[in-house]
Amino acid sequence: MALHRILHRLSVGQKMLTFTGLFLVVIVFILAMASYVLEQQRALNTVSERVGTLSERVLYLDEVLTGSTRMAAVTGDTDWLDRYDSHAVRMDDALDELVALAPQDVAAAFEASTGAANDALLELEADAFRAIDQGDLDAAREIVFGSAYEARKTELDQGTETFLSGIEADVADRRDTLESLAYGTLAVGIGALALALLLAYGVARSITSPLAEAVAYTRRVADGDLTVDAGSAARDEVGQLLNGMGRMTRGLRETVQLISESAEQVASAAEELSVTAGRSSEGARQQSTEVSQVATAMNEMSSTVQEVARSTQEASDAASDASGRGDEARTALAASSTGMETLAGEVEQAAGVIHDLEQRAERIGQVLIVIRNISEQTNLLALNAAIEAARAGDHGRGFAVVADEVRKLASNTQQSIGEIEEIIEEFQAGTQSAVEVMNNGQESAGRNVGEARNAVAALDAIMAGVTHISDTSNQIATALEEQSSTAEEINRNITTIEQLASETSTAVDEAASASQDLSRLSVRLGEAVARFRL
């Protein structure tokens, strides 16, 4: 039960990872232990083989050393001593390697038990070697064949055998330990595999059992039974699936209920829509007819607007032409007014000059009057002189001549003054006439200048009116063009509306057909919903 509760808290992925991880740990543990045991077994076999080889070598070398020593004592040949020396080195190497391979306590016991015997045996052999060197073979034979040598040799051989037996016993113990370890590893592996199988069974049950429940649940839902409900306390994906399916069923139950209610409403609405679509179709056809009439009227209005726009444009062009000619007339009139103003000024100046001439003529007349008075007095003086010359006689003859000349000169002067007076009178008369003419011309020029100015002002007002007419005509033409464009746009829109009205009529007919189809579908939908048990 505890395992079941634990598995329910885990997701499917976590369950699979847990199972896979445990299985991998078991496999890795078994493989590691097997590898370790095999490695130790190989090492132990190597040691065992090496110990056997070294044991045989030690026993062999021990016999060789003993034989060489005794043969040297018997024959006296030093070659046997050389053979002893070479094999003694091999003997020491073999024993050192055995000591290194042996357990520490076995090696220590071997050194403790054979150390004294070995030293004593080496000392006896040294004595024998000296005797041989000295040629005393009897002494050498007595040593190597004596009881002391045999006793030390036996003691050393027994220690060596004990040492070799200890090594073999240690190898056997280590082999037993490895065998026990192998069996223990096997037992642990079997237990771990059993645990893994148990976990696998639990994982499978935690997955397949809810899945079976989900399959049974989905079958009931597929059969139309929406009264069932699903749920799970498990936190894994299958539990989430069951909870999700429960929510889905509740939502589906609500949806089917809503669909059932909506199907009834749709059936009712479809009938109303069918009736409304019939009325809309009739209205759309009537609208299409009226829009077609409006389109015809808009075409006629567009043509009329275009004609008025062309006429207004022609009026605008005529007003523009009149404005141009008015500008030319105004320019000429303005130039004429300027010339008249100049002429009036010149006439006024001429009148001033003539008036000045008149005043000068009057002054000349006054001077002539003075000259005339002087001439008359001169004539009187000449007469008096002539009278006095006549009274003087011959003495006054020369003075008489002079007086006569002076009188003649005075007479000529008076005659000339008379002529000059006539000329001056004529000049004054002409001057007065000229002054009157100039005054009249000045007044006429003034009036003409005023009238020219009034004409220019009137022409400016006319030009302003013509310009205003031209601008207004242009504005009207522009407005009519815009109105024509707008009318064309309205005409296009009306055409579009007419098409839309036709399409609307077709769509309404299709909607009526669709409403009938919708009514049939609502009936079928109600039949489909009826198979569900809510």
Key phrases:
single chain; 534 residues; mainly alpha; Helix Hairpins; 2 domains; 8 helices; elongated; transmembrane helix; transducer; MCPsignal_dom
Break the fold down into its secondary structure elements and pairings.
Layout: H1 2-9, H2 12-75, H3 79-101, H4 104-134, H5 137-144, H6 147-222, H7 237-392, H8 397-530
Describe the structure.
By secondary structure, the protein is mainly alpha-helical. The chain folds into 2 domains: 2-220; 251-530, Methyl-accepting chemotaxis protein (Helix Hairpins, Orthogonal Bundle). Helix content is 94%, strand content 0%. InterPro entries: Chemotax_Me-accpt_rcpt, HAMP_dom, MCPsignal_dom. This is Methyl-accepting chemotaxis protein.
Order of H and E elements = HHHHHHHH
Terminal CA distance: 37 Å
> Which structural class fits the helix and strand makeup?
mainly alpha
Q: What value does the average pLDDT take?
A: 73
- What name does CATH use for the topology of the largest domain? Helix Hairpins
Return Rg in Å.
82 Å
Transmembrane segments: 16-38, 181-204
Region (Disordered): 270-337
Keywords: Membrane, Transducer, Transmembrane, Transmembrane helix
Biased composition (Low complexity): 314-323
Report a brief summary of the structure.
This protein has 534 residues and is an all-alpha fold. The protein is 94% helix and 0% strand.
